[in-house]
Amino acid sequence: MIGSGVFLVSADIARQVGGGLWQLVVWAAAGVMTVLAARDLWRAGGHVPRRGGQYVYLREALGRMPAFLYGWTLFLVIQTGTVAAVAVAFAASRGPVPAISAASHPFGDGVRSPPSGSWPSS
After folding, report:
1. Relative orientation angle of helices 64-73 and 54-62, to the nearest 10 degrees
2. In angstroms, what CA-CA distances link 13 with 17, 81, 89, 116?
């Protein structure tokens, strides 16, 4: 999951900043921000030594309602967006799916339901 973003985002960054050195500057800045965010979560974990991650930190810092809203946003938007991005990366790297004709299908002409009244009674 982590590596799929590299393949999706690189081309967009190159188009926006012109590629080359500027693209490396953008990636370095994103790396620094990621390290700073990880450090902040590490420090928060030292101050609030309970299980629950960001939800617990938000609940202790901002109250129950913002933490509740974050939890549902994580469930309904953030995580589903991550899964969708990974699906897009997989589909883009997979390429087109070949069509399956009825002749090459393992069931031949397709699976048909039996005529009504032909089921054995038990």
Report:
1. 150
2. 6, 20, 16, 60
DSSP 35-91: HHHHHHHHHHHHHS-SSSTHHHHHHHHH-HHHHHHHHHHIIIIIHHHHHHHHHHHHH
Angstrom distance (rounded) from CA 19 to CA 10: 9
Cβ(59)–Cβ(48) below 8 Å:
no
Rg (CA), the chain: 25
Stretches in the chain below the pLDDT threshold 50 = none
Fill in the amino acid letter for 25.
V
From CA 80, how far away is CA 74, in angstroms rounded? 8
Report whether 11 contacts 19 (CB < 8 A): no
Q: How far is residue 71's CA from residue 75's CA, in Å, rounded to a whole number?
A: 6
Which pTM does this prediction carry? 0.55
What is residue 111's predicted lDDT score, i.e. its pLDDT? 54
CA–CA gap between residue 35 and residue 32 (Å, rounded):
5
